[in-house]
Request: fold
Amino acid sequence: MRISDILAAKQTFSFEIFPPKGELPLEHAHEVANSLAECKPDWISVTFSAGGSGNSANTFAIGRDIERDLGVNALVHLTCMGSTTAEVDANLRKIVDDGVSNVLALRGDRRPGVQTVDFAYASDLISHIKATTPELCVGAACYPEGHVECEDLDRSLDHLYLKQEAGADFLVSQLFFSNDDFYRFRELCLRRRVKLPIVAGIMPFTSVAQIQRMAFTCGASIPSKVVKRLVAAGDDKDAQAQAGLEYAIEQVEDLAANGVDGIHIYSMNRPEIGHATYEALVACGYLGA
Reply:
């Protein structure tokens, strides 16, 4: 089912997983997806070669099995940085042949030695998909505090408008730790004539090191209330992770109360995060049991 059709009908709940890294077998991702499917998400997204790990072939296999074996909509990520048109077309054919109807079109992270070939921006990829594979529903990324490479939020919103005009059907936000930043961004989108549904992306922080990394790689601000919780947790890794999960639950409860189009959980391949957020959203009435 097309995610745009689901968003037109109701508020959504979804997860992101990534293909296994290093020595982990592919079966690990299937186990994670199977556990998350118990929460009845509207879709599960699968990242494309996470962190430049070169495991993008697994993205398609996992997406196919989510659709075929679990009966859950898959949202397959597709990046274009360094890709030729022929490579992108081969990936699109694979996605369609696997029975997947939804793709998240991304430029992808800049990496040493990888140069732009046929696609400079995500909007270029979106236009190409719409022209060559119109049966696919296309999602795009958005950044509540602006893309980390943009000098200001206005420039980032200009790029977002281009994604809409290129044919994007819906938006999924980068992680954020202040809901006020998301609400402000939602208002700015309307003022800038960006009218696509915006799904709010939430990633629970798990440690001091992780949240520092997120701040630098994603440009996400760290509110003082998050710092205070981490200080209270001290050097206890379990306490840090628990503080992160509790804070994320407070975020999703507040988002649910403020009428967001959807909530997307960056699960980090940890089913317990998915189940905890699902239970919180059932309890507050955003989801049915």
